[in-house]
Amino acid sequence: MILLKKSLGLLCLIIIFSQFSQIPAQEIPQPTSTPKTIRGGDAAIDRTITMPNAETVGNGIFTLNNYEIALFGLTYGITDDTQASLLFVPYLTSLTLNNVLISVKTRLYSNSDFIFSLQPFGAYHSNFDEEDDDDVTYTYGCAFASNYMGVDNLVLSIYAPIITNSIESPAFFSLQSVGAAYTMTTWLKLLFEINCYPLSDEIDSSSDAIFAVLGGFRLYGKHFSADLSLLYFPQFMRSSELLSWAPFISVAASF
C-alpha cells in the first residue's frame, strides 16, 4: 500500500510538470528607441530675446537658427532641461566675427501651466574703425524667462536679463520682452510682443531704450520653423514713417 501511494504521488508530479512544460515562455519585450523630437514640435521653441520662450529644445536635439535676424546660432540640448548655444554676427566686410555670444539655458521648474528658466550668458563685441583699430568690450549677465500656459492654445512669456559689461558701466535689469503666441493649427501660430531694447550710455540718444511692438505669425514644425512679422518702432514715428516699420524674418531648423 505504501509503495502504491508513492507511485501515485510520483505520477501526479510527472503529470503536473509535463503540463507546465507545455506553457510557452513569455517573450521579454525589448526596449525600443524612440526618435528624438524637438519639444513642442516647434523648431523655434527655445527663442529668448524676440518672441521669448522659457522652453529648451530637449535632450540630443541640435538646431540651426537666426534668432534675431542677423544673429546666427547653433544650439544643442545637453539634457531635457539644459541647452548650450553659440550665437554670432558675421562682420560684413571681412571674415572676422565681431560679435560672439555663448549662453546656457536651464529649466529650473516646469509643470502643465508654468515654466521658469535661467540663462547665464557672455558676449564678445569688437568694433572696427577706418584705421582698423580694434575696440573690444565684453558683456555678461544672466536672464530669466518664464511661460504661463494656463489658457488653452495660448503661451504668455517674459524675458528679463541682468546685464553688465567691461566698460565699467553698472549692471542693470531690464524687462526686455513680453510676448504671446496663440496656436491656431498644428502648423500656424499668431505672434504678438512688446520689446524694450536698453541703449548703452555711449549712444547719443534722447531715450534710454528703444521700444518696439511685433506682430505676425509663425509657420512651424518639428524640423523647420519660420517667423514672418512686422516690427513697429513708435519712437521713430515723428522722424520718418519708413523708419518706424521694419520686417522681421527668422528661421530655425532642428535635427
Q: What can you tell me about this protein's structure?
A:
- This protein has 255 residues and is mainly β.
- The protein has one domain: Porin.
- 8% of the residues lie in helices and 51% in strands.
- It has one helix and 13 strands; from the N terminus they run αβββββββββββββ.
- A twelve-stranded antiparallel barrel has the order 1-2-3-4-5-6-7-9-10-11-12-13.
- Strand 7 (154-165) and strand 8 form a beta hairpin.
- It is globular.
- It starts with a helix and ends with a strand.
Short description:
8% of the residues lie in helices and 51% in strands. It has one helix at 2-21; strands at 62-65, 72-77, 82-90, 97-110, 114-128, 134-151, 154-165, 172-173, 177-183, 188-198, 209-220, 224-232, 245-254.
Task: Pick out its properties.
Porin, 8% helix, globular, single chain, 255 residues
Instruction: Catalogue the unreliable spans.
Output: 3-8, 13-17
Please tally the β strands and state the result.
Answer: 13
Order of strands in the sheet with the most strands? 1-2-3-4-5-6-7-9-10-11-12-13
Percent in strands: over 45%
Oligomer: single chain
The CATH H-level homologous superfamily: monomeric porin ompg
Largest sheet: 12 strands, antiparallel, barrel
Give the SSE order as H and E letters. HEEEEEEEEEEEEE
Query: Can you name the CATH architecture?
Result: Beta Barrel
Determine the fraction of residues in helical runs and give it as a percent range.
under 10%
Assign the CATH topology.
Porin
Query: Quick one: overall form?
Result: globular
What is the name of the CATH class? Mainly Beta
- Summing up helix and strand content along with how strands pair, one would put the structural category as mainly beta
Mean pLDDT: 78
Radius of gyration: 29 Å
Termini Cα gap? 79 Å
Q: How many helical stretches?
A: 1
* Tally of separate domains: 1
